[in-house]
Specification:
The structure holds two protein chains of two kinds. Helix content of chain A is about 10%, strand content about 45%. Chain A is mainly β. In chain A, a hairpin with a 7-residue loop joins strand 34 and strand 35. By secondary structure, chain B is α+β, with helices and mostly antiparallel strands. Helix content of chain B is about 15%, strand content about 55%. Chain B is built from three helices and twelve strands, in the order αβββββββαββββαβ. In chain B, the strands form two sheets. Chain B has an eight-stranded antiparallel β-barrel. A two-stranded antiparallel sheet of chain B has the order 6-7. In chain B, a hairpin with a 2-residue loop joins strand 6 and strand 7. The longest helix of chain B is centred in the first third of the chain and has 22 residues. Chain B is elongated. Classes of the chains: A mainly beta, B alpha+beta. At the A-B interface, helix 1, helix 2 and strand 1 of A face helix 1, strand 6, strand 10, helix 3 and strand 12 of B.
Amino acid sequence: MKTIHKIFCVLFLLTAIVACDIDKFKELQDTFKVVLDPDAVLNKKELVLKDAQTSQELSNTNVTYSVEEAYQKSVFTTDGTAIHGYQSDSPLVTFGLLRNIVATTENPTTVAITLSAEGYISKTIDFIFDGTAVVAEYISLIKISNLPSTIDYKKETTAITDGKTEQPIAIESNGTSIDIPVGTDATGPVSVTLINYDTQTTGDDFNAAQEFPDGFTMDNGDYIVPEGAFTLQIEGGISEGTITIPINNVAAKSNNICQSLIYINGFYHEEFQSGSISITTLKIIFGIIDRFNIVFGCPAATTCTLIEGVSFQNTGGATQYKYSISNEGNEITSGKIVVGAGETITVARGETIPNSDPSISLTALLPSGQEQVINLPSTSICTLDGTTIDVTASQLNKEYRQKIDLSIDCDNSKVALNNTMISFSTDNGVTYYPYGKIQAGILSGYFPTIDDNIEYTFRFNYDGPKEGTVLGSEINDGIITQSDINKICDEIN
Amino acid sequence: MSKIILSTLCLFLSLAMFAQEEESKEPKNNRHAIGIGIGTGLTFDYSYKINEMFYATARYNFFKYGVTDLEQEIDGEIFLVDAAVDFKGFDIAVSIHPFKSAFKIVAGYGSFQYSNLQVDAVFAESIFIGDVEFTTDDIGIISITSAWNKQAPYLGIGFGRAVPKNRRLGFGIEIGTYFAGSPDISLQASGILENTTSQEDLLQEAFNELKYLPYLQLRVSYAIF
């Protein structure tokens, strides 16, 4: 019996050991990594700032970002800096909504952000956060010293004494004027800028509609065929002033339902019939809004609203496209978008456009410098609402990469960049094209073909642009340098 | 510690064998017994004596245990860990006494209602990304679930008859294992830890070794007739 007793004890021990291979779990303690996403935000917008005239990325230009009051504590850069009041001389800035803010396609969050830079016309943009992980936004700023002939820019300033303006301000452009008399109440030094746009002429990287956060669509959904458009930027907290708009300058069109219409986005809307009024003077109380986007013209006779928008699907490598939406040959809006490998991007969702002769065009901008016009099933955008179009650029060669692990080992954790765009350049960083996206620390899928023997500059943005120049064959370990790793790890503590 | 446990088990085993040996002095013919056991969980059972060599047992086992807010260092970070084990199920087993002594070999089949191990881990302290503070709730949670097969063969050895031979009361001990196969591991993570799910393969590899679920039971039985 004693023998059986011993056997039993041995069996017990044996069973316990077999049941749990301790070595495997000890090994797991060393190999298991907690993987952190270093982004403070979701719904990322990756801004690429360009000079509107030269199409080159802005360099050595300090841009200040101002967020509308309601969202000043909601919008941050990926590395956790508030965008409101943020200053950067980088052409690449990535920001998004704090993670606890839920934005969806059905319930998007729209945030107006103003970009100001010395020597450039400041620009207010309505950024729509709709749950898309990351979207590239190409923003062009217009240099005041190099204005296109279609833009008239005038600015006046005055100091204040005892809370009142010292000098009168009177600015006029093509009959449109703003007057602020001396002695007007103000909270600080006053600066008034009047920018008058010729709405019929556009450049490669700007058009008048882009300068208006809501384009030419009114709050009621009507689309104004613009005869004139201007913005007023007023700093100094002025209590009131007078804007004069010459209604008789608005060309009456027999087919239009109004003689003329003045619309100030979200603020003022008035129609004038029969041309009985030759000049209307609007007296507007300032101090509530410091920027006015004013359009005059008439609502389009017929419109179509793109309820679902038009979706572009790309089965090739990530590609940059330029799209343009026009009516009767006049460009309504245009812009650049990036459609990543295997992704679908929807444009013009919810937009109202005139439909007498609406059209859309799409051009792929290829790393070779070539442009490929994408054939669309119809050029009439109104008929494309709700459709998904394969826009894969056939002239862009693609290659499949199984898995490039770009995750970063920091001291206490592993960091995996997520939904982070990578672009590449063949001309030492002058012109960048999309290469792909890091997802959970991994590059995988289809990418534009690169040559093993050519040097490329790769770039991504986290706490400022991170650039590295490597041979195509060294992409596996050359995109993120050690200094990048140190900076990224430092941001997480 | 393990030596103390082992010695205690061996002592109990000796008592169990002694009890069975004492029983043999007053022959009776008990055929049905109920039992309660404790070990790797709590067990209730009913046993039927087929003959001197074979006994059939149906038993219900359950083991539910959890700890909360256990501080653990994982990959250099301090985590608060909640761990819970939940095993419930029925076994049917046949005890074979090859030497017609108290020594037995037990073969059976287990059917688990639950066979889960759940571990949830959260950061113990806030972290900052730039100026943005992530509280432990904001950071997210890492959840590991391990689930074994719902059906598993069982094999064990022990001492003590399922139905006491000559007395109303009997004692026994049994040790064995379920051949449950490798468990399915699910690793889920949320918030800024979401990408930790990429470590699931590593976990699965380690847990692949856990093919055998141990079973230990110290049992008291009562012959009902």
